[in-house]
Amino acid sequence: MAKPPLAKLLADAFLEPSSEALGETHALVIVQGGKLILERYADGYGPDATYPSWSMAKSMTQALAGMLVLDGKLDIHAPADVPEWSAAGDPRGALTLDLLLRMSSGLAFVEDYSPDNPSDVIAMLFGEGQDDVAHYAADKPLAHAPGSFWAYSSGTTNIVSRCLSRAIDAYGPDFEAFMRARLFEPLGMTSATPKFDAAGTFIGSSYCFCSARDFARFGLLYLRDGVWDGKRLLPEGWVDYARTPTPRQSGVEDLPYGAHWWMDIAGPGSFSANGYEGQFTIVVPDLDLVMVRHGKSEAMKDNVRAWLKAVVDCFR
Length: 316
Prior knowledge:
The chain is an alpha+beta fold. The chain is built from 10 helices and 10 strands. About 30% of the residues lie in helices and about 15% in strands. The chain is globular and about 60 Å long.
């Protein structure tokens, strides 16, 4: 069967007010060979608009962790610095940042976005946990032996985020200054707007608003193995670590997962930062390509993923 042409795929996605199959597509940016080669926006959106990251922020948190590893201030294989687990004999005290970055801590956490169902992520972001998201997540008990069970958890990322703050004793505006000096400013991500809770923790699970072009810059950092303008911003091997598959129990039907990055969404070797309602930053090394898509399409997730792969396949 012939591949659908790119023009048809774009027309299908940018129907107004929305596509029955794909929901709303607000922005599409494609960078290949380091150059912007395609950019399209829905009415009311544009290159200067900022878009929600949702869980794409998790991959930014992974980048920030890598920078502290590069500085020698973080060891991802040592027990994580989490006060809630410091009591003698607490089995959580042995949990490492590696297990947290791989979503394999074993901590109890219900990641459900339906307000009609019990949900730790909704309580953490919008309810009882919102003033101290890391404490809310770190206070959870173990549901599984560490390393034995993979479970996607926004709470896990916020524990990691607070560990980063503790490693450099920087919270709120001070941690934002670190983010800007080490990640946003070197890449030219002038639109980046991270959000913090009342305790000063970067809500790394969910909240860093950026323009589509700036999300593409972030993807390009990973496409270039953590090097930007000849300077290494991430440790050597950190990008490979991000896309090394995490062992998972049988029965998990979602995409393979690495360390705070998803894998294979646009074919073998691709990896991506994925966010709620259809936010994607996709890195395709064999095509030297980064693609960013923003929209509102949670109920059409499978359709959107198939569409994303079809768009990438147009460049093969």
